[in-house]
Amino acid sequence: MPTTPNAPAVARLRESGAILFAKSNMPEISVMPVTDSLAFGPTRHPMAPHLSPGGSSGGAAAAVAAGLGPLALCTDGGGSIRIPAALTGLVGFKPTHGRVPYYPRPTERTVAGPIGRTVADVAMMMNVIARPDGRDWTELPADDCDYLAALAHAMPPLRIGYSASYGFQSVDPEILASVERGVGRLSDMGHHVENVDFVCDDAQEISHLQAAISLRELAERAQAMKAPQMAPSTLRVLESVLGVDAEALRRMYPLRETLIEQLLALYRRYDVIVSPTLPVHTIAVGEFFPDGELLGAACRSLGSFTRPHNIAHTPALSLPCGVGSDGMPIGIQLAGPRFADARLLALGHAFEHAMADKSRTRGVPAPASVGMA
Questions:
Q1: How many domains does the chain have?
Q2: What is this structure's pTM?
Q3: CA 196 to centroid of chain Cα atoms
Q4: Residue 241 lies in a domain
Q5: In the chain, which end has fewer C-beta atoms inside a 10 angstrom radius, N or C?
Q6: Residue at 172 is within a domain
Q7: Are the C-beta atoms of residues 114 and 93 closer than 8 Å to each other?
Q8: Residue 284 has what pLDDT?
Q9: What number of helices (H) and strands (E) belong to the chain?
Q10: pLDDT value at residue 32
């Protein structure tokens, strides 16, 4: 029996009879887009061991992609569900902030959510973990939504905006080709699709400042230790946290307000914003850890499409939409306004069926759902 209370999502899963059979690897201080640590070493991609499954929920994604289990409970503070889901050919869902109670230490941007092999499985987990708990002061009132049943509802034509760059991010041409084929399939499904050049400003600075607030105590402890047991790349991140002062934090609030206003304006025109999940579709083990540059442009760019939705507290779903010439998965992201969780899952489910086997990787067989067909 656990010696401390279960987190809300874990408690709901146990109450529903779920079998929690493992804890998976995660990166040091959790804010990395790769999964590696000095304590446990790197998590490797089950299709290509020289590659990373991403992070920070890379251990969970690798386990599901390798067939160890059908679902994983993960967290996402800037893409930590969607990034590894995209890299491993899985479905990853970041719910509206507060929809899944988060405790202890709820934050301004981190949520709990599922990674699974199908949208139906992810919706089934949402039915369980999106129940009230009472310990998270940010949790939303129960909406009594049956996410699994909602997948079968007829969907009216939606207004969809497609952005290849969000206005600032370059993307691998092979990814763009695959995502644009997926966008074409959405149009074939009867939805009205328009190209959108600009979505929002780059959210990197806001995200870094928000992380600095939660990491400050750890950074001060590491500074006080003569030989902290952390990798050089981790220590550089913590050193940057110590350089964040009150003036920098004051600057964060108007930046955040502007970004949220940009997204809200877009959601008055569109029901869903579609983009690549990532600008690249492979990350090498060792590229950013233990002595890589986590604060450099290459690492920062990995969250360009995912971070804004954590800051704005809006839901986003990553789905497989094809493979590269090397056979590795490519992900497409569907994002919507607050409380559009069921809509995104229903659209994702229909897209999954429309794409059929075209979105599946060569190295992992098409999954059998534990939810519904």
A1: 1
A2: 0.94
A3: 22
A4: no
A5: N
A6: yes
A7: yes
A8: 97
A9: 12, 8
A10: 87
